[in-house]
Amino acid sequence: MMLYSPPMTSLLLLLTVTFLLSPTQAKTNLRILPLGDSITWGYGSTSGSGYRGFLLTLLTASNSSFLNDNITYIGTLTSGNLPPPENANEGHVGAVITQIATFAEVPLSWTGALEGDVVLLMAGTNDMFKPNLSLADAPNRLGVLIDEIVAAWPKAAVLVATLTPSALGSTQTNIDAYNLQVPGVVNARAKAGNRTLVVSMANITVGMEVDGLHPNDFGYGLMADAWYGGLLEAKSKGWIQGETSGAVLIKGTSLIQWFGVVVLTLWNCV
Ligand SMILES: *[C@@H]1O[C@H](CO)[C@@H](O)[C@H](O)[C@H]1NC(C)=O
Ligand SMILES: *[C@@H]1O[C@H](CO)[C@@H](O)[C@H](O)[C@H]1NC(C)=O
Ligand SMILES: *[C@@H]1O[C@H](CO)[C@@H](O)[C@H](O)[C@H]1NC(C)=O
Ligand SMILES: *[C@@H]1O[C@H](CO)[C@@H](O)[C@H](O)[C@H]1NC(C)=O
Ligand SMILES: *[C@@H]1O[C@H](CO)[C@@H](O)[C@H](O)[C@H]1NC(C)=O
Fold it and tell me: For residues 259 and 65, what is the distance between their CA atoms, to the nearest angstrom?
């Protein structure tokens, strides 16, 4: 029979093997929850999107390490000029750490626990100038918030920012003391196996702020650079592989397909 002549069988084998060994497009559903206060909301930026706009630009640029990923910002609020759903966030104006913890309950109740989920957390700025809140206890409150996130979404990468500076009164002294504690809070959890890491916002200065508290566009751009670096670090740790399509399908069927190849080869040899 023509179809089963040795050259034709070899061709079929070659095509099958090429198909099986061809690189597959793994697409990560990268869900990002920007969580915090007015700085996460984007107050003071001309776009209204703050760092979230600049970060999305970095993540979707042709030189991005996340180019093949399906990137979606999530949250109960919307602000800024990004097209929906990318304007979603959980940045509550004026919120202190404990209030952010309460607001976080809503998005954390959504289907989570997927690899590919990322939380960008920046909390504490408003705690720094509230006379009725303990400053010394602020790092503990941050830790409680991180534990809440990890308990709800154990596979998510939780990136925790140090605070950007302030020109308001003695606030900077408080921020300096708090920022010194942040790595200890975050790294203790990482040591315990939590997917937590610190993102330093030390590159932002008060000269890059519109009101001595909220970054201007340049400052928000530097914040985006810092978050991007944190995302790269999380990726290198294998924390954001995500739900994939394509590769999984091929892996799942490959045994059956190899069986077919073997049968075809044996059949051709006899
Ligand atoms: C992209 O991710 C979002 C959020 O996880 C999901 O709703 C959407 O279906 C995904 N889109 C594609 C094309 O996979
Ligand atoms: C990608 O290129 C742009 C424009 O040159 C640059 O601003 C950005 O930092 C680059 N991103 C990365 C991840 O290297
Ligand atoms: C501290 O004061 C603010 C108002 O400035 C209030 O919203 C908050 O509930 C107070 N917190 C505590 C723990 O008393
Ligand atoms: C996170 O760390 C806590 C200890 O702080 C530990 O009890 C918990 O099992 C860890 N969770 C994960 C998912 O590693
Ligand atoms: C801070 O700025 C320096 C110089 O541009 C850069 O190399 C570094 O990656 C930045 N750090 C962060 C955390 O963004």
Answer: 36
Which residue, judged by its Cα, is nearest atom 14 of ligand 3? Answer: 132
Pocket-testing residue among 147, 150, 237, ligand 4, by greatest number of atoms within 8 A of Cβ: 150
pTM: 0.84
Question: Which token pair is 256?
Answer: 């059956």
Structural contact between residues 240 and 231, judged by C-beta atoms closer than 8 angstroms: yes
And the tokens for 142? 């941050």
Residue 254 has pLDDT above 50, yes or no: no
* pLDDT score recorded for residue 111: 74
Residue with tokens 């090429």: 18
Q: Is there an atom of ligand 2 within 6 Å of 58 CB? A: yes
The 10s digit of each residue's pLDDT in 25-64 is 567 889 999 999 999 999 999 999 999 999 999 999 999 9
For residue 246, the ligand closest to its alpha carbon is 1
145's CB contacts (< 8 A; 6+ apart) are 97, 98, 100, 101, 104, 121, 123
Minimal CA–CA distance to 117: which of 230, 245, 249, 243? Answer: 243
Residue labelled with tokens 């999380």: 234
Query: Hey, what domains does the chain have and what are their CATH numbers?
Result: 10-20+249-269 (no CATH), 27-245 (3.40.50.1110)
Q: How many other β-carbons are positioned within 10 Å of the β-carbon of residue 157?
A: 26
Atom of ligand 1 nearest to the CA of 70: 1
CA of 165 to the centre of ligand 1 (A): 36
